[in-house]
Structures are given as C-alpha cells and as structure tokens.
Amino acid sequence: MSINLQIKSFEEYKEKYAKSVADPEGFWSEIAEDFLWQKKWDSVLEWNFDEPKIEWFKGAKLNITENALDRHLAERGDKLALIWEPNDPKEQFVRYTYRELYERVCQFSNALKTKGIKKGDRVCIYMPMVPELTIAVLACARIGAIHSVIFAGFSATAVSDRVNDAQAKMIITADGLNRGAKQIPLKRVIDEALATCSSIESVIVYDCLGWDISMTENRDYWWHDVVKDEAKICSAEVMDAEDMLFILYTSGSTGKPKGVVHTCGGYMVYTAYTFQNVFQYQESDIYWCTADIGWITGHSYIVYGPLISGATTVMFEGIPTYPDAGRFWQIIDKHGVNQFLTAPTAIRSLMAYGEDHVLSYSLDSLKMLSSVGEPINEEAWKWYYLHVGKERCPVADSWWQTETGGIMISGIGNLSPMKPTFAGYPMPGIQPVLLDQEGNEITAANVEGYLCIKAPWPSIIRTTYGDHERCRINYFSHYKGYYFTGDGAKRDENGMYRIIGRIDDVINVSGHRFGTAEIENAINTNKNVIESAVVGYPHPVKGQSIYAFVVLDKVTEDALMTKGEIVESVVAEIGKIAIPEKIQFVTGLPKTRSGKIMRRILRKVAEGDVSNLGDTSTLLDPAVVEEIVANALI
Ligand code: WTA
Questions:
Q1: 265 φ/ψ angles, rounded to the nearest 5 degrees
Q2: How are beta strands 483-491 and 43-48 bridged, if at all?
Q3: Ligand 1 pocket: which of 408, 508, 514, 544 to mutate (most atoms <8 Å of CB)?
Q4: How far is the CA of 71 from the centre of ligand 1 (A)?
Q5: pLDDT surpasses 80 at 204
Q6: Closest CA to 408 of 457, 474, 477, 344
C-alpha cells in the first residue's frame, strides 16, 4: 500500500468534494478499494437518520489491525511505526518498527485470549501514555474485543460507571504514571473502582513505575508475566465491517456520559483518508499528535489513522511544561517532527511563558501545524504560525467530535486557503449545513447557525452503547433528517466555516468535554448542597472554565471548607480535570415558573457581563438575580 489517498491541489479538492456529494457511494467505494479486506462489501451504504441505522460496506469482512500492521510488513517492516518519548528527557526514548509492533501486538493478543477474552467482550484500558497502551488497543482490535479506553485522569467512580455500563470483563492498567514532576497511582484507583464492578474477571497491570503494589490473587496479573510465554504471531479475527471496534465515553447534555460506538470498516476508511489528506503525510515523514489516547483524537490520529497509513507516529508520555516550557519544541528537533498536532489550550499555556523557549529551537523539520479540540483564538493562532511555524507552515484548524470519529472541517495541508479562527472547508464526503432555530437551512454568508450534517460519512457514530434511543434523541431528533453536532458555526462568503462553540449544556475545558448536569450531579452528592447550577465562562488558557452556583442547606461558618468539600466531591465523582474554578454560594437559582434554570443569566454573570441580563420578569423570584450579581466572583 502506498499513501495514495491524497488530494494534491485545491482544485482537486473541489472536484473530489463535488463527486463525494453527487455520488457518495462511488466516491467512498473507490477509496475503500485501497484497504485490505478479507471480503468486499455487498453494499456501500444503507442508512436512515430516523432510527438511526447507518451501515457502511455492509457484508465486508476485515480486521483493522491487518491494515495497520500486517500489510505494511512486506514494504515497511523495518520502518518506524512508533517513537515513544518519555516524560523525563533524560530517559531513553523507545522506537518500534512495524515488524516489532506487529509482534508485540500479536503476543499481547494471545495473552488476552489466554485470559479468556473473546470476540465481542469489552475490555477497559486505563493506562499511561506508554507504547503498551497502543499495543493493548490494537491487541483488542486484533481479537475482536471491544476496547473502551478511559482517560487516566478519571476518578474511581467515573471508571466504575464506565466499566459497569459496558459490562467489561477485563481492565488493563498500570501501577501508576508519570506526569511532569508527579507520579500518579492508577492501580489504586482501579482497586477502588472494582469494589463496585462485578463484571470484571481479570486485571492486567503494566509495570510502569516499579512500585510495590497490591495484587489480588486470581484476578490481577502483571503484563510481563502474561506475555512471556506467548507466541509473536496471532491470526486476526474476521470482523464484519459493522462489528463494534470500540466504545469511547463522552459527555453530553445529560448527567451520565454516553458510550459512543464506532465500527470497524467505516472508521478505518475515514480515519486513514483524513489523516493522509489533512496532514499531507509523505512516506519518510515523522508525525506527532500530542493528544492522549484516552480521547478520540488519540484513537484516530495517534493510533489508527497514522498506522493504517503506514506512517511513523510519535507518542509522548509527558506534559508541555516539564521540565520546562520548551519540551514540545525540543522533542520536535530531537525526532525531526514534520507534522505537529496539538490543542489550543497547550499553545495558550506555552504562550504565557514567552517566546524564548520556542525561539531556542530550530524547528526546521516542521512542514505543517494543526490544532484541534476547541476554537483557536486569533492570538494563539498567530503565535503558533509565527513562532512555531516560522511563517512557513500552514496551520490546519480541524473541527470534529468523538461522535464523528474523524476530522470533519479543516484546512488541508498547504493546499487550502487559511484564515485565522476559521476551521476551513468540509472534508470530501461531509455535507455541513447551518440551521436556524426552526430548522431551516441558512444559505446567506456570515450568519450564525446550528451546525448539522446532512448525510452520513463512514465514521459517524452508530449507536450509544446499550441505549440506542439515547443516540437518536441526542443526535438525530433535534432536526429531522440531520445529525446535530451541538455546535454553533458561521460560514463566510467563500464557504469556510468558523466554529463558535457549544450551544448545548456542554463545557469544553482545555479541550475536555463535560456536561453541566454531570458536574452538578457530582456537586450535589455533597450532603450540605441542596442544588447547584454550573456554567462555562471564557478562560484565557483553558478556553472555558467552570463556574458553579451552589445553594446550601445551611450556611456554614467556614465557606472555604465547604468549597473544599465541593471540590472533593467533583474530584471523587469525575476527576481533577472537572474542578470548578469558581464556586459562588447563593440562596436560590434563577428559575422560570416551570422550574427551569435560566442558564443564560448565570452565563452572563460568569462572563462578568451583567449590563444586560435580558428579561428577568418571568422568573419565579427575580430578586435572586440581584443577589447573585451583587456577590458575583469576577
Ligand atoms: C469542540 C475532539 C472549535 C466542539 C476532537 C466539538 C472544536 C467538541 C474544534 C468535540 C475546533 C473540537 N474548533 N471547536 N477545531 N475541535 N471542537 O468529542 O465544540 O472531545 O463539539 O472531540 O470540541 O469534542 P471531542
């Protein structure tokens, strides 16, 4: 296989785009020909958005790991598949060729089978950013087990919720992880989580830190023990194109995170296609995405997209500011990185340390830059373009979601025009529309609307695990016949899209999604709390931050202590990543007569803009607003 799915000019993009809309089946089947199938499809696409039921490449048989590993062995067996850079720059980095990675994946696949894991079983993975995480993901896919990676910053309660929802049989974890100067326990969190999980039969523990940890007999096994007698070949399970590949939990506007389901065939085709096009990867390039594999970006653009394309992908264990704020730039020079993908929040946090760190590295190898996860503000875009890309490298701002599986709207390498703060153009096969409140398509330029998608693409969400109705209600019921993204957007006169941000009750903190209800539920577990309302407000580094308005049962003497307890509840229920930055105690929340919280008002207060709160006369108790404004934490 060569990297031959690439568009080579903006003209060609326009042609391909037109074809993809006029004849989606012809367009995608031609692309799908480039992959390794054990059997080709009977039909390219069958769908309706009412149920929803979406089937791509129905009847086809494949295994995604044969595409990511086996088929590269002949021509790329000695090519680097993975470069792992440790947290501590003084430690040695590790490199795997495609052959080595293939062998390690096969060996671990056999270990999973020996421990009783079969096709269709769910396996949770709660790991540091080490190569074994990638190996575990691919080993699951190889034997047809459904992986559910849980970001290693989530609390025991969040882990057990996910394990129970998926009824997982196994967890793969580590003793702990390195994050900058800190070491964080993982196995201890798993032990706590497993007290409330009955489906788990075994736990595999990777020895990352050499810690002496407690191991439960007949349940917990060391990674190095389970692999040591296993063979380095393992036949790949035959999967239907529409068999589940993985579940990834994400937050929405309801209290409980939902398990987004992706399937084998369409996800494979779309992640590889978008990887090759957005990043314009060339055979000898080194590509690096700084995301964590606990999130969708890591799934699609550290593991699957690059490896299916035969690329060399870099995986970094640490954080951008350790041992200093030049770490990213040092890694780029050290490994000769050509394509670099990071999040706006990382750029903004590094900007705060000044230019010296970035200016002391050459960054000559870079050919293109990309950003993902949240809107990139103009200042951050310019800093990235000027100081990192040295005005030579295009910046592709890519918009997409856990539910979309792959990049939807983005710049395309150096082919497409760039405009700061605009994500760019829809990828071929993607038909975005902007709708007004009534669901009419907006055709005028520079008008804001609800961003929806009109037709399926190969890696669209298929269902929410164990609850298909939830998938329908969340994504397909707002506007009949459209996939609803939850984002607002604008389109300029040239057809470029600018993403404004979420229009539902989702807050995006440093590129991590949280539902307001999810955080409120966590706050409300505190015995002193009667109720709470959480909103997002703009934050200079994190993009958005969390502001909580909390009604207490009785006013406690020590407000600081109570705030501390509220923070503890959030840490226990979700994790440190969801801690509210501001907590304001209020005697009541602004509610309508029907009991609905008027978040619009709270958002304005949190934003520090109380000049025009709109009409408050419909509130049950308008006086509450005055009190909230008077005590606002601005
Ligand atoms: C936001 C991350 C603006 C958006 C891949 C979306 C963005 C949510 C961008 C999905 C971008 C992602 N510009 N906003 N380039 N990329 N978002 O599921 O609100 O973690 O709905 O997927 O992040 O977050 P998720």
A1: -70, -55
A2: unpaired
A3: 508
A4: 32
A5: yes
A6: 457
- pTM surpassing 0.85? yes
Tell me what the mean pLDDT of segment 313-323 comes to.
97
Please state, in angstroms and rounded to a whole number, the distance separating the CA atoms of residues 115 and 611: 63
Q: Would you say the CB of residue 400 lies under 6 angstroms from ligand 1?
A: yes
Nearest alpha-carbon partner for 141 in 25, 326, 40, 271: 271
Ligand 1 centroid, distance to 399 Cα (angstroms)? 6
Q: Residue holding tokens 């736990």?
A: 203
pLDDT of residue 1 exceeding 50, the answer is no
What SS3 class is residue 608? coil
CA of 571 to the centre of ligand 1 (A): 24
Nearest in space to 87 (alpha carbons), one of 129, 120, 25, 118? 129
Residue in 182, 207, 189 with CA at minimum distance from that of residue 126? 189
**Neighbouring-strand partners of residue 545:** 537
Domains and CATH numbers, the chain: 98-237 (3.40.50.980), 506-630 (3.30.300.30)
Residue 560 has pLDDT above 90, yes or no: no
* CB 507 within 8 Å of CB 544: yes
pLDDT of 260 over the 80 cut: yes
Structure tokens at 208: 């990352």
Round to whole Å and give the CA distance between 381 and 386.
9
Reply yes or no on whether the pLDDT at 450 is more than 70.
Answer: yes
Strand partners, 508: 513
Spell out the residues 6+ positions from residue 251 whose beta carbon is closer than 8 angstroms to its own. Answer: 257, 506, 513, 514, 515, 518
